[in-house]
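sanity check this chain:
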Amino acid sequence: MAEILTALWGGFELALTPTNLLFIFVGVCLGQIIGALPGIGPSAGMALLLPVTFGMQPATAIMMLAGIMYGGMYGGTLTSVLVNVPGEAASVMTALDGNKLAKKGRAGAALSISAIGSFVAGVGAVTALVFVTPPLAAFALKFSAPEYFLLALLGITATAGMGSGSVLKALLAAVLGLLIALIGMDPIEGRPRLTFGSQELLDGIDFLPVAIGLFGIAEVLASLENTKHAEPMKTRLRDLWLTTTEWAESRMAIVRGGLIGFFVGVMPGAGPTVASLMAYVAEKKFSRHPERFGEGALDGVAAAESANNSAAHGALVPMLALGIPGSASTAVLLAALVLQGIRPGPMLMTQQADLVWGLIASMFIGNVILLIMNLPLAPLFAALLRIPYAYLAPGILVFSLVGAYATSLSLFNVGLAIGFGVLGYVMLKVDLPRAPLVLALVLAPLMETSLRQALMLSEGSPSIFVERPLSAILLVAVILSLAAPLYGVLRRRFSGPAFPGRS
């Protein structure tokens, strides 16, 4: 314990030098901006800025890039809440309730709880990173193809419990997302499938045009139908901050979301998206008012935001301890280490102790900076909602289409975003939930690759999914996630009065 605290103190001495402090601030500010822009995302933003790190000291470069990584988790909240356009996959769950709160005049509260939840979960995750990296890294090594498949499948089946609508509709939307994910190159055999001869579809359909279309463009199309009767969204100063009741309802959501996010983040390949989904579903189970989820639940926003920020920090555990990237963003960090002439791997914490502890200390500092930035600015961001929607709509559409174009500098993605915008509009009309489709699209590659690898290892035998205790536990969780909503439907159907005429 004393050795750890001594090393951490040395990390703070390194992080608090003027140059490093400046670049921590630059990194979190850039992350905030990049996270708020649909179509870029933290990993892409970090990759674009890799050339800037040439000539920097290794510790300075890594601190700045890490600031972009977790700063992007904060920034993704802004567009999710204010215009219902998730900047990245991890913000989908935030958009689900955050935008509904904004339409009720509670945008400030949604942004405030997001900032507080992200800060508490982020600091908690960095603290855990300090003390429990070795045992958690050992636990992450136990995951192989069967466990990754079942974890992804659990994320898919858990979508049945999302929202307040039909379980069947949620699963139908998830299946549609899986079908869309099949388009592109076969990940094992390397052959094109469902591309119909189109060169643009060889790389598959990217998440961002789908999310931008389904959430941003579809909402604009649906909202413009009612512009004649719609009033400008207004926020009062007293509505911008949390009430005692709201804080009481949200504080345990922050704790649970942070814990789930950290442990999911430690598992390489899972990432903030899976974490936010699992935290959201878990919070709905714990909530005293599950009917509010999908309609503007502040504790749902708190859980999702805490989980995605905690997972972003948790993904550093396998990267620092084993040299295994836990997410796309940590993969870019690994690339930055290699560019700086540092060899990542199990010896990193021994050979580059100053850099590792300086990075950990910088994350404490960066989270404090982000909290200071975000809480005072929540009223400013919420004030955007005072603009009448008829004036906002064209800007949102342009913003969305520019984001879609920025993913690959291709007009094809713009067309995809418009197409999925129309699909999202139709889904709104027929009351099909959109979040399960997007989340299934994100989880499908991990699910498919892991399934096929597992079956190749077992020569086609499904017994591989129950041979190890960890995979067996995950399989039981998948079955329960399917059985629980079905049980709820049957209970509601048969718990009515035996004689309809009696009360």
